[in-house]
């Protein structure tokens, strides 16, 4: 499962997005949460939203496919040994 997390910050329209296996699973602009047009600071609320949405989608997809392997090695993250 290839996962890409991207942000845009410190310029107009700060935002965050998460793509899993080539499909957008979450994306949001910070102005949606701050209610300030062209918000340019760090998009912390947009990042939190994307992480929550992506986590729900990943959990749902694993429960539907029966994927019970939650190990770090499978996701490409080295484990602490």
CATH topology: Nucleotidyltransferase, domain 5
Structural class: alpha+beta
Biggest pleated-sheet summary: 3 strands, antiparallel
Helical stretch tally: 3
Q: Largest sheet, order of strands side by side?
A: 1-2-3
Name given to the CATH homologous superfamily: ATPase, nucleotide binding domain
Order of helices and strands: EEEHHH
Helix content: 25-40%
Total number of β-strand segments? 3
Tell me the number of structural domains. Answer: 1
Termini Cα gap: 23 Å
Query: Percent of residues in beta strands?
Result: 15-25%
Cα gyration radius (Å): 15 Å
Oligomeric form of this entry? single chain
Summarize the structure.
Helix content is 37%, strand content 23%.
């Amino acid at each position: 499962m290839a996962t890409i997390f991207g942000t845009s910050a410190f310029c107009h329209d700060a935002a965050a997005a998460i793509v899993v296996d080539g499909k957008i699973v979450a994306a949001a602009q910070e102005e949606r949460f701050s209610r300030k047009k062209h918000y340019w600071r760090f998009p912390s609320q947009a990042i939190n939203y994307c992480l929550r949405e992506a986590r729900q989608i990943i959990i749902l997809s694993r429960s539907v496919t029966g994927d019970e392997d939650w190990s770090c090695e499978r996701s490409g993250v080295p484990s602490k040994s």
